[in-house]
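Give me the fold.
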Amino acid sequence: MVFRLFGLATEFATAAVISSMDAAVTIAHRMPILASGNGHEEAVRMVSEKIDAAVRGSLDASVAASALFGRAATGRLNADELPEGLLRVGQAALAPAYQQVHANARRLSRR
């Protein structure tokens, strides 16, 4: 249990670090586009992608939380499974944002 939880926490932290690096690349490439005065399309795309990732993350987290709390309400959740379940809810919430920032870093790096 402890080693599995440690592995999940390590994956969670690694994903956050990678996402941070991807965000830095994305910002470095977007700033000149937006500052040029011709970045309207990129700005609209940026906002719509953020809204989309937030909505998908909220829905995915709700599904994961519902499954976790459903197991708890029916007595099928052991106390030692709760930390892992909560970590999975967090992963579900952040996964769409991580995917989007990674895709943006790749797309903008090719310009």
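The mean pLDDT is 96.
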